[in-house]
Automatic annotation (TrEMBL):
Belongs to the carbohydrate kinase PfkB family. Keywords: Kinase, Transferase. Residues 15-309 form the Carbohydrate kinase PfkB domain. Gene3D superfamilies: 3.40.1190.20. Signal peptide: none annotated. PANTHER family: 2-DEHYDRO-3-DEOXYGLUCONOKINASE_2-DEHYDRO-3-DEOXYGALACTONOKINASE, SUGAR KINASE. The keyword Zinc does not apply. It comes from the Bacteria. It comes from Paenibacillus phytorum. GO terms for molecular function: kinase activity. This is Sugar kinase.
Length: 325
């Protein structure tokens, strides 16, 4: 089965995504937040992480969202734009501040603290969508984080999908379950409905166990086959799974030589996989690209900083030796 996407004319992005991007503060030197006097100023958000990953791999991609008209919002806007992502539909607003998250890694465990309630992004609604912009893309990529932010954000997510489907744009959906943002009971019906409306469903295995309330792999596969989407299941023990109506294909991981920061691995996977689809690779081969990008991103601190270029990916795939000097 070939993962062809409908071709569109025009010079806009091939892939469009939207959602909240926040400033990120992390302690230096592996200390806890409580005891650190120095913090690194970074930024992150699932959708912008994916967009930057796609851009680094040579894909034409657009990201939009709402940021506060404040120093953090301006920093994020300029840095995403500087990564070659189209931000022409992003907005800086004086209505509310840019969201903030803080993260620490202690004894190998990552903890994230959010300061995003009533942020600029949470005020996004369907009126902020540009239908012509979405219509010009090949793929709309959304995550389950956006509908968790507010009722108006949830409406925007569903309306964006409606617009995409109306114009023959493929919908890619990563549930990105965040139980710090909403309860499982609130999340389950929304995420399952979004999965039903998608062409490509990108869940983690742990998320599926919670969504379908079962540990049984065979039951999970049968549930996935009730969807019209192709399902790409991340987070297997040693592989990612491609689940179609009549087959399950396991695609092995790439071993990461040195794991530094696991946050962003799933977003990196999505970026690599979606670029693989743009290049009209078979699903399993696109997943292989995603697995590789995910393994490279975890070897650098930050959500997206370790995202590779296509040349770097190609070098690993073709076992090109690095010449140091």
């Amino acid at each position: 089965m070939t993962a062809n996407t409908q071709s569109h004319s025009g010079s806009g992005p091939d892939i469009i995504t939207f959602g909240e991007t926040m400033a990120l503060l992390m302690p230096s030197g592996g200390k806890g937040l409580e005891y650190s006097s120095e913090l690194h100023s970074l930024f992150g958000g699932a959708e912008s992480n994916v967009a930057i990953g796609i851009s680094r791999l040579g894909g034409k991609v657009g990201w939009f969202g709402r940021l506060g008209k404040d120093p953090l919002g301006r920093m994020i806007f300029k840095k995403i734009r500087g990564e070659g992502v189209d931000v022409s539909r992003a907005e800086l607003t004086a209505e509310a501040p840019t969201g903030l998250m803080m993260r620490e890694v202690l004894m190998g465990k990552t903890s994230v603290y959010y300061y995003r309630k009533n942020s600029a992004a949470s005020l996004m609604s369907a009126k902020h969508l540009d239908e012509a912009y979405i219509a010009g893309a090949k793929i709309l990529h959304i995550t389950g984080i956006t509908p968790a932010l507010s009722e108006s954000c949830k409406e925007a997510a569903f309306e964006a999908i409606r617009m995409a489907r109306k114009h023959g744009v493929k919908v890619s959906f990563d549930p990105n379950l965040r139980l710090k943002l909403w309860s499982m009971e609130d999340a389950r019906p929304v995420l399952l409905e979004l999965a039903k409306l998608s062409d490509i469903f990108l869940p983690g295995l742990d998320e599926l166990k919670l969504l379908y309330q079962t540990e049984d792999w065979d039951v999970i596969v049968s549930k996935l086959r009730e969807l019209s989407a192709i399902s790409i299941v991340k987070g297997g023990e040693n592989e990612t799974y491609v689940v179609t109506s009549d087959s399950v294909t396991a695609v092995p991981y790439f071993k990461a030589e040195h794991v530094v920061d696991t946050v962003g691995a799933g977003d990196g996977f999505c970026a690599g996989f979606l670029v693989g689809l743009l290049k009209e690779y078979e699903y399993a081969e696109a997943v292989r690209i995603g697995n590789l990008v995910g393994s490279l991103i975890v070897q650098t601190e930050g959500d997206w900083e370790g995202a590779p270029t296509w040349e770097q990916v190609d070098a690993v795939l073709n076992d090109v030796k690095h010449i140091e000097r």
